[in-house]
Specification:
Elements: H1 2-15, H2 18-27, H3 33-46, H4 53-110, H5 114-120, H6 124-190, H7 194-217, E1 219-224, E2 229-232, E3 253-259, E4 262-263, E5 273-274, E6 280-281, E7 295-298, E8 319-322, E9 327-329, E10 334-343, E11 346-356, E12 359-364
Antiparallel strand pairs: 1-10, 2-9, 3-4, 3-8, 3-12, 5-6, 7-8, 10-11, 11-12
């Protein structure tokens, strides 16, 4: 009985929470800025609730609704513009045919010999009428040409507008696909379990805390040169009795670059290479910290697993890599430091090198 009451209470809280009420309210608003603003307000509210699985899913769902609203609006704009283009095309076609006839008529009128006009009229009044008629035709033709140019300009503008709208639509559809993939990935990894989600967040938080402590309390080992061996790839931070309690999934090297203690895109510092799975990565001039046949298990930036890194805004702050060779090398000259800290029940070993001018490289999970 208690279990039934709990389930009913949970269902009421879930389906009657403010987020769901607000999201439904947005649907009744007209397409456009008003509805988008409504969804954005919900996202602003949900942003602080993403520390729960339900809050994160609601955040994704609202983002999806916002993008769907934009897609519907863009599709409507494309339909409207297409209709205008069809109308303008017909106008241009009609004007082209009419202009062709007028040119022929004007040519015929304009080709008359002035003496022929003079002698063909009965009196001076008729002569004036003929001249005024020709002037009227010429003025009408000039206006017709001006109006035709206006239609043509409008046609060109609408064509440009529809191309921009189609590009925007494609971007919106890509965003929608990514959001749905992120949502599905989150549900798949957590098995829709709040407990699993919280453990994943805790692992990431603990690892972050150890890194921050290392940068403050790391033990100075001394100067190193580029290419010097500094560690061995390991799995420190892994807790065998229950891997969910530690902060490592197994043997690998997490390599990270920081400038003034802020993480930066590690890939822009390392030389271009292709890993054993065919991934092309790197655009810098540093040698990689490990040699042999390298495999990248997680890149820098937004990845399938980076949603757990709340402290970094949901990006993976370095590169995770494995290799058939375990020696870790210094990527540049500097001063080497080491630190071991608790990551849950496990010990996490970190090496880092201070290269000067605020530049540091970090090497995690080493032996």
């Amino acid at each position: 009985m208690r279990k039934l009451i709990f389930l009913l209470t949970f269902a009421l809280l879930l389906f009657h929470s403010p987020a769901f009420v607000f999201a439904d309210a947005c649907i009744s608003l007209p397409l456009g800025q008003e509805r988008e603003d409504c969804y954005q307000k919900i996202l602003d509210t949900l942003g602080s609730q993403a520390n729960t699985l339900a809050g994160q899913i609601a955040f994704y769902d609202t983002q999806i609704k916002l993008v769907l609203s934009k897609i519907t609006q863009t599709e409507g704009q494309i339909t409207s513009i297409s209709s205008k283009i069809e109308s303008l095309e017909q106008k241009l076609q009609d004007r082209s045919q009419l202009l062709e006839k007028q040119i022929v008529q004007t040519y015929k009128k304009g080709g008359l010999d002035p003496f022929e006009i003079f002698f063909s009229v009965n009196n001076f009044s008729d002569l004036l009428s003929q001249v005024k008629y020709l002037q009227t035709i010429q003025a009408s033709n000039r206006k017709f040409l001006y109006d035709t140019q206006t239609v043509q300009t409008s046609y060109a503008q609408q064509k440009k507008l529809i191309e921009e709208s189609r590009k925007r639509l494609q971007t919106q559809k890509t965003t929608l696909a990514n959001l749905r993939a992120d949502r599905d990935n989150l549900l798949r990894q957590t098995k829709n379990s709040e407990a699993i989600y919280q453990k994943l967040l805790e692992q990431a938080r603990l690892e972050y805390e150890v890194i921050q402590k290392a940068l403050i309390a790391g033990k100075k080992e001394g100067p190193v040169k580029k290419g010097d061996p500094i560690a061995i790839v390991g799995n420190s931070g892994y807790w065998a009795p229950d891997p969910r309690l530690g902060c490592s999934t197994g043997k690998h090297l997490h390599f990270e670059v920081r400038v003034n203690d802020d993480w930066v895109n590690t890939e822009t510092y390392l030389k271009n290479t292709t890993d054993k799975w065919g991934l092309n990565i790197g655009s810098g001039n540093w040698d990689w910290p490990i040699k042999g046949t390298i495999g990248i298990t997680q890149r820098y930036g937004k990845t399938d697993y980076s949603y757990v890194y709340k402290y970094s805004g949901g990006i993976h702050t370095g590169i995770d890599m494995v290799s058939n060779q375990d020696v870790v090398y210094a990527v540049a000259d500097g001063t080497l430091y080491s630190y071991t800290g608790k990551c849950g029940p496990a010990d996490l070993n970190i090496k880092y090198i201070d290269h000067g001018s605020g530049l540091k490289t970090l090497y995690l999970h080493v032996q």
